[in-house]
Design a protein that fits this description.
The structure is a single chain. By secondary structure, the protein is of the alpha/beta class. About 35% of the residues lie in helices and about 20% in strands. The chain contains 8 helices and 9 strands. It has helices at about 15, 35-45, 65-75, 95-100, 115-125, 140-155, 170-175, 200-205, and strands spanning about 1-5, 25, 50-55, 85, 105-110, 130-135, 160-165, 180-185, 195. Helix 5 links the parallel strand 5 (about 105-110) and strand 6. It starts with a strand and ends with a helix. The model has no long low-confidence stretch (mean pLDDT about 95). Bound molecules: 1,3,4-trihydroxy-5-OXO-cyclohexanecarboxylic acid. 1,3,4-trihydroxy-5-OXO-cyclohexanecarboxylic acid binds next to strand 2, strand 5 and strand 6. Involved in the third step of the chorismate pathway, which leads to the biosynthesis of aromatic amino acids. Catalyzes the cis-dehydration of 3-dehydroquinate (DHQ) and introduces the first double bond of the aromatic ring to yield 3-dehydroshikimate. Its EC number is 4.2.1.10. One of its GO terms (molecular function) is 3-dehydroquinate dehydratase activity. It catalyses: 3-dehydroquinate = 3-dehydroshikimate + H2O.
Length: about 210
Amino acid sequence: MKIVVSVEDAGVIDEAVKYSPTFIEIRLDRMAGDLLDQVRVIREKTAIPLIATLRSREEGGRFVGNADLWTRIIGPITRYVDFVDVEARYRDHAPLIKSQGVQILASLHTSEMPTPPELGKIESMLRSYGDIPKIVVKPRTTDDLLALVAFTHQAQKPICTSIMGAEFRYARAILPLFGSEFMFCHAGTPTAEGQYHIQEARQIADLLK
Ligand SMILES: O=C1C[C@@](O)(C(=O)O)C[C@@H](O)[C@@H]1O
C-alpha cells in the first residue's frame, strides 16, 4: 500500500518521514509565504518523491486564481518535485509540465457520486492528459462505496480512487486493496476530512500487507 502524506508545513517533514511515506504531497494552496522557497526546503530535507498540489477552491482547495496564475506558481516548482497534481481545468498546461520531466496526477474531486459509466468517462478524460488518474468522490450509501470499489478493481492501472467526508473514511484503507494506487493521510493537520494520521496509515498498511 503506497502512502501519500499530505502536508501544508515544511516543519512536519522530519516527523512524517519517520513513517516511510511513499510520497509527500505539498499542498501549496494551504501554505503562505514564499512557496518556491518552502518547496526547496522540503526537497533538501528528504529524497522521498514529492507531489505538488495547488488545489482549486472549486475542487475543495483554497486556490482562487485562474489557470495562468496557477501555471506561474507551479512552473518554477516543477524542478523540485516528481509529480504535479493537475485538475482538468488546468489540463492545457500538462504538456509543458511533462516536458520538464514531471509526471501528472490528473485529478477530479466531486461531492457527487458518479455512476460507474460516468466514472469510466472521467477516467478516460483524466488519462487523456495524465499519467495517473485520481478520482475523489462522495459515496452516500454502502452500495455507492461498493460500486466505487468494483470500479477501482476493474479499472486500468495505475489509478487512484478515494472518498470525501468522514462517513466512509475506512474506504481510504480498503480502496488500495482493490487497486487504488495511493492512500492519502496527514502528518498532524488533515488536508481533507476523514484522513488518518500517517502513524495510523503506516499501521494499517503494515497490518494489511
Ligand atoms: O486529492 C487529494 C485527496 C485528498 O483530498 C484526501 O481526501 O485525502 C487530500 C488532498 O490533499 C489530495 O490532493
